[in-house]
Amino acid sequence: MNKKVLVVDDETSIVSAIAYALRREGYEVETANDGEEALEKVASFHPQVMILDVMMPKLDGYGVCRRLEDREDIGIILLTVKNDIVDKIVGLEMGADDYMTKPFEIRELLARVKALMRRVEKSSPPSEDQKSQAIINGALRIHVAHRTVTVNDEKLELTPKEFDLLTILMSNPERVYTRDDLLDRVWGMEYAGGTRTVDIHIQRLRKKIGDTDQEKLQTVYGIGYKASAPEASGRI
């Protein structure tokens, strides 16, 4: 399967440099110069990874992330000229997977694209046993092979990393994971972001699954997180 990357930035020199470097690495690349064009390219090109500038005309990078909240298997790396942690947190809360501050090294960007591509690429087709596998915790049901999550039979829209994070925790109830453990397992060794990324994704998951009282995804203060023991048989 071709590895597709969409590069979105209103600065043509940046787009050209990134696209050239990616094509040399064997990626199939499309480009866009504003947020509206980016959404059109997502629909027609179906990229696995999108490199997305924050400050753009017509529709900024945050707006693109909002429109793609129900996306499946698209990894997003935000590019920003701002180095404020608040701006980075906003990007992650909007559903971005990673971020880089301009100016940046092309080699580092390529490494992050490679790591993100591995996480969003589909694995081999599931076996018949896997197709029927589900993890259950009360009204929450994770359909592992199909990568879907439902609460009270209502399908939730999760990003790839939200799904992976939830699945890891729910697959091992009562096991305590440090933030570094989860960062390594979900984001990979190459990820250069901090453990605050884990906290943001946990907050997003709690909101999406309706876990406002932190009954299912519990904070272990000073250490990390764990999932509560299932209310019913945990895996079928």
TrEMBL record:
<feature type="domain" description="Response regulatory">
    <location>
        <begin position="4"/>
        <end position="117"/>
    </location>
</feature>
<dbReference type="InterPro" id="IPR036388">
    <property type="entry name" value="WH-like_DNA-bd_sf"/>
</dbReference>
<keyword id="KW-0804">Transcription</keyword>
<keyword id="KW-0902">Two-component regulatory system</keyword>
<keyword id="KW-0238">DNA-binding</keyword>
<feature type="modified residue" description="4-aspartylphosphate">
    <location>
        <position position="53"/>
    </location>
</feature>
<dbReference type="Pfam" id="PF00072">
    <property type="entry name" value="Response_reg"/>
</dbReference>
<dbReference type="InterPro" id="IPR039420">
    <property type="entry name" value="WalR-like"/>
</dbReference>
<dbReference type="InterPro" id="IPR001789">
    <property type="entry name" value="Sig_transdc_resp-reg_receiver"/>
</dbReference>
<dbReference type="GO" id="GO:0003677">
    <property type="term" value="F:DNA binding"/>
</dbReference>
<dbReference type="InterPro" id="IPR011006">
    <property type="entry name" value="CheY-like_superfamily"/>
</dbReference>
<feature type="domain" description="OmpR/PhoB-type">
    <location>
        <begin position="132"/>
        <end position="229"/>
    </location>
</feature>
<protein>
    <submittedName>
        <fullName>DNA-binding response OmpR family regulator</fullName>
    </submittedName>
</protein>
<dbReference type="InterPro" id="IPR001867">
    <property type="entry name" value="OmpR/PhoB-type_DNA-bd"/>
</dbReference>
<dbReference type="InterPro" id="IPR016032">
    <property type="entry name" value="Sig_transdc_resp-reg_C-effctor"/>
</dbReference>
<dbReference type="Pfam" id="PF00486">
    <property type="entry name" value="Trans_reg_C"/>
</dbReference>
<feature type="DNA-binding region" description="OmpR/PhoB-type">
    <location>
        <begin position="132"/>
        <end position="229"/>
    </location>
</feature>
<keyword id="KW-0805">Transcription regulation</keyword>
<keyword id="KW-0597">Phosphoprotein</keyword>
